[in-house]
């Protein structure tokens, strides 16, 4: 295969990979955000198996995350091949025409590449840590199934969003909005504390809607 034809194939694959990485990233951020649900870990309690999850083309957020990761890996391989095919050009661009100071330019380029590689590899070589959520600036939350009905965060915790409330209780966001008398334009990511403050919704109202839906 001619080098020019190979370059076209590699460039095409790189463009396709870039588009797919960008599109799946936007998909995970906006169409299937955290709290969309997954097939495993649906929780316990009354009607736990009926709690809704969001699917796109039959795939959950977790499955689309896998697609996103593997496409990203493929793009990294294609870019590595692209860099190898153009390595001579890269070396010439760094060196430039032989003149005074060209050696320092090469050294600077090598140092920059080494720093970039070190930053890229560092997360994979660093140990992970498990710490209580309270240490990261947020209040620790006990799993809803382990709390008494009166204190479950799903029934009025101010830091929780409507989307999180829907995910834990199984009550769709649209039902929560309708039964609580909220405007239709309210965002699913609106926090309960703000909802109570702006629209006069009380914790008892939220508990009543959740209890009525789960009867």
Structural notes for this entry:
- The structure is a single chain.
- This protein is mostly helical and 215 residues long.
- It folds into 2 domains: 83 residues; 68 residues.
- Helix content is 56%, strand content 0%.
- Helix 1 packs antiparallel against helix 2.
- It is elongated and about 75 Å long.
- It starts with a helix and ends with a helix.
- About 12% of the residues have low confidence.
Keyword list:
single chain, 215 residues, mainly alpha, 2 domains, 8 helices
Q: What fraction of the residues are assigned to beta strands by DSSP?
A: under 5%
Oligomeric organization of the protein chains: single chain
Structure classification: mainly alpha
Q: Helix amount, in percent?
A: 55-70%
Tally of individual domains = 2
The SSE string, one letter per element, is HHHHHHHH
Could you give a short account of the major beta sheet? none
Number of helices: 8
Topology at a glance:
Elements: H1 3-31, H2 61-85, H3 87-95, H4 102-125, H5 162-169, H6 173-179, H7 192-199, H8 203-213
Helix pairs in contact: 1-2
